[in-house]
Sequence to fold (74 residues):
Amino acid sequence: MRLPSLTSKKMVRALERAGFVKDRQKGSHLIMINPKNNARTVVPIHQGKTLKRPLVHAIIDDARLSPEEFLKSL
Fold:
């Protein structure tokens, strides 16, 4: 399945819909956790830049979501 490249704002919004909450931020990296399954992922926040497909896929893997589950939360 082909995933889109996204802005960090859209990625954070989709993860929040999937049950993640913002844990903390260190510099330009936002750490998000899911209290239900104890998953943790890091989203880089860079204004005006998009997250490329390989990074989107890596964030989804860290979040323990399938690509179908992630696309539903977009």
Observations:
- The two ends are 15 Å apart (CA to CA).
